[in-house]
Amino acid sequence: xxxAPDAPIDDLVVxxxxxxxxxxxxxxxxxxxxxxxxxxRFFMPRVRAAELVQRDDILEFDIEARPVRPTDARIFAExxxxxxxxxxxxxxxxxxxxxxxxxxxxxVAEMLLVPVFHLGATMGAxxxxxxxxxxxxxxxxxxxxxxxxxxxxxxxxxxxxxxxxGHGVTVAGRSLRETVFRAIYGxxxxxxxxxxxxxxxxxxxxxxxxxxxxxFNLQPFATDRAWEQWCSRAARAAKPSL
Length: 242
Known about the structure:
By secondary structure, the protein is α+β, with helices and mostly antiparallel strands. The chain is built from 8 helices and 7 strands, in the order H-E-E-E-H-E-H-E-H-H-E-E-H-H-H. It has helices at 6-21, 79-88, 105-108, 133-136, 146-156, 176-197, 207-217, 220-238; strands at residues 30-34, 41-45, 58-62, 94-98, 129-130, 161-164, 168-173. The longest helix is centred in the C-terminal third of the chain and has 22 residues, at 176-197. The two termini are 34 Å apart. The mean pLDDT is 95.
């Protein structure tokens, strides 16, 4: 069991349930938080589908992605994503890696993922694309080494969402709730952009609009309201039907 206050660990469990209920994470993908009292450590679940994760599934890792305590649990190879971003981005407190179906077309097509509506701007005005081929050639597309994780973290740079060519998406935030918010509305922005393209030319947000909308929607009055609803939906989804 991680040595941390109950609330952050409990929120991390709930975040996985929320991301699953909202369709961002399925059997694959994961979310983590930086240790609130030690910037050189972070928490993420053992290998398990996010909607099934419970408190006992949460493990603690150091900034090199090594388990702080010996464990027999299966651990994600892609914890390297989380460790590398925490190393290079001291402002990041939470990371999510996912393969939401609405985002995947932008991981394979020569089309930029850009903000097109108010809440969608929270994915960030710029969404870079990282291609493992550029540095590592043919791989299984997983981020399983320190070098791969650091390469992805450098591609993310100062931004909040990065696409991974042929693979998925990684999202960062200054809090767990912010990361969840960015992940969900980034997915919805992708859905909207795909549908809009079927109608013809698309008018995107201007850089100024995207920055202003992002800042407005990431204030607690917005993120907390959404978090409350998402938690309620996740709790209902977890209850067996009568």
